[in-house]
Backbone:
């Protein structure tokens, strides 16, 4: 039933995560690759009982042809560009839930956009 639902979408790229990296992520990933799908395995959205088990699973799915990745990279790749109406909301979600340090980059980007639009602030501007 799940396979039929995936086939009906017509998509050939899958993003997979699972409760256990070595089972819930790996098994469907390897099966999908064998069926001709391009598969991204979101490793940090999956768990495991040991680092060794996770490392072995990453090697296994990569050898099978999957692309191991993380949540931040997947969201960024799905966005393709942040210059979209929903871009700032996605950036906020990333900063709040995935990578708090990303907020610094957001602030820097906003400042650069402000300078591009209004020109740089000078010391003389402070006295007007």
Residues:
């Amino acid at each position: 039933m799940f396979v039929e639902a995936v086939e009906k979408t017509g998509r050939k790229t899958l993003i997979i995560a699972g409760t256990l990296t070595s089972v819930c992520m790996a098994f469907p990933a390897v099966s999908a690759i064998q069926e001709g799908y391009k598969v991204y395995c979101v490793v940090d959205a999956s768990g495991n009982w040991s680092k060794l088990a996770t490392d072995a699973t990453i090697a296994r799915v990569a050898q099978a042809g999957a692309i191991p990745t993380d949540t931040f990279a997947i969201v960024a790749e799905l966005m393709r560009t942040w210059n979209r109406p929903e871009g700032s909301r996605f950036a906020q979600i990333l900063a709040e839930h995935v990578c708090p340090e990303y907020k610094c980059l957001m602030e820097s980007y906003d400042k650069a956009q402000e300078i591009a639009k209004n020109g740089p602030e000078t010391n003389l501007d402070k006295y007007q």
